[in-house]
Amino acid sequence: MPKSVSARKPEAEQQIDLTPMLDVVFIMLIFFIVTASFIKEPGIDVERPTAETRNQVKNQNILIAINASDKIWIDKKEVDKRFVKSIIERMHAENPKGAVVIQADKKSTAEIFALITDAAKEAGVTDIALAAEDS
């Protein structure tokens, strides 16, 4: 019996080329990494005061937390009040459009809040906000 012209190739030779799919997946991975916005957390949870009115702040890259015992936290690290200005300057240089958002506990003092506000102004930041809860 003659062999058929449409004879199939052996199973070992039949493969799907995955290279184009891997290229697309790699390009998508790069796209998501580049376009992701990384939010820096202050490192502690604070009980924020309530406010009657509020405005949403965009580009909030510099988050500073003040806990009830007036300790300052930036980027999950406790910071001495003498170094707040230099840290704000460094973080503001990384993102000049970013605002300073201060998350102060209800029981914290106004002195620490004023110290951070002054340090931010001296560092060249003009957009400074206090985080608050809705009332």
Automatic annotation (TrEMBL):
Assigned keywords, A-Z: Cell membrane, Membrane, Protein transport, Transmembrane, Transmembrane helix, Transport
Keyword Membrane: yes
The organism's place on the tree of life at top rank: Bacteria
Subcellular location: Cell membrane
Transmembrane annotation, as ranges: 21-39
Topology versus the membrane: Single-pass membrane protein; Single-pass type II membrane protein
Coiled coil: none
PANTHER family per record: BIOPOLYMER TRANSPORT PROTEIN EXBD2 (PTHR30558:SF13), EXBD MEMBRANE COMPONENT OF PMF-DRIVEN MACROMOLECULE IMPORT SYSTEM (PTHR30558)
Family, as annotated: Belongs to the ExbD/TolR family.
UniProt-recorded name of the protein: Tol-Pal system protein TolR
